[in-house]
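Backbone-to-sequence.
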C-alpha cells in the first residue's frame, strides 16, 4: 500500500508542462548563472535569444538587466541577444530597462561592425552623455550630420546626432560632435529644425561660442 501511495503522489505532483529550453535560459539569466548558458551554447542547443515562445516569457537579456545579473548581460550580448528588441513581457527594450542602472547599461554596449547599425549605440551614448562610449562606437567613418533611418516597420527616423545631443542636453557629446564636423545650422530631418534653433541656455551659448571661434 505504501508503494502504491507513493506512486500516486509522485504522479499527482509531477509537473504537467516541464520548462522549455528557453525558460531555463531565462531562469539562468535571472539567477546570474552564466555557466548554465555556456553549457547550452557548447552543446549547440541554444535557441534564438530574441524570439520568446510567448508573451508571458521575458527575453533573457531583459530578465538579466531587470534582475541585475551583470555577469550574464555581456555573455548574452556576445551570443547575439539584442538590447534594442522590445520584450513583450516587460514592454521595454533592455536599454530602456537599464535606464537607471549605469553599470548594466555599460555592459549592454558592444560595438557593431556596420556603421549604420552603430547609430543605435551612438544615440544611446548621446542620451547618457557618455563621451567615452561615443568615441568608441563612432568610428573613423562617422557622419555627424547623417539622419539614420531604421527601416523595420513601421519605420523610424532618428535625430541627427547633434540635434539629439541638444535635445538630451548632452553638453560633452555636443561639444565633441561640433569638433568632429557636426553643423549646427543643418536642418535635422526629424525635428525640421536646426540644432542651433533647438538649443537653449548653456547649450546655445556653447554652440555660439564654438561658431565664433570657428569663424575667427
Amino acid at each position: 500500500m505504501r508503494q502504491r501511495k507513493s506512486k500516486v503522489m509522485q504522479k499527482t505532483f509531477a509537473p504537467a508542462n516541464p520548462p522549455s529550453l528557453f525558460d531555463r535560459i531565462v531562469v539562468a539569466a535571472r539567477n546570474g548563472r552564466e555557466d548554465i548558458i555556456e553549457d547550452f551554447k557548447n552543446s549547440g542547443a541554444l535557441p534564438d535569444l530574441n524570439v520568446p515562445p510567448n508573451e508571458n516569457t521575458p527575453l533573457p537579456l531583459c530578465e538579466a538587466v531587470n534582475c541585475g545579473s551583470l555577469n550574464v548581460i555581456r555573455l548574452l550580448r556576445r551570443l547575439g541577444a539584442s538590447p534594442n528588441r522590445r520584450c513583450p513581457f516587460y514592454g521595454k527594450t533592455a536599454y530602456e530597462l537599464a535606464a537607471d542602472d549605469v553599470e548594466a547599461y555599460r555592459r549592454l554596449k558592444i560595438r557593431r561592425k556596420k556603421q549604420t547599425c552603430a547609430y543605435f549605440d551612438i544615440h544611446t551614448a548621446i542620451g547618457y552623455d557618455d563621451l567615452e562610449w561615443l568615441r568608441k562606437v563612432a568610428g573613423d567613418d562617422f557622419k555627424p550630420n547623417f539622419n539614420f533611418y531604421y527601416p523595420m516597420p513601421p519605420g523610424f527616423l532618428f535625430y541627427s546626432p547633434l540635434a539629439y545631443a541638444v535635445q538630451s542636453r548632452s553638453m560633452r557629446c555636443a561639444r565633441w560632435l561640433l569638433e568632429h564636423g557636426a553643423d549646427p545650422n543643418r536642418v535635422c530631418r526629424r525635428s525640421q529644425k536646426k540644432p542651433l534653433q533647438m538649443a537653449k541656455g548653456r547649450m546655445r551659448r556653447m554652440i555660439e561660442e564654438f561658431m565664433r571661434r570657428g569663424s575667427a
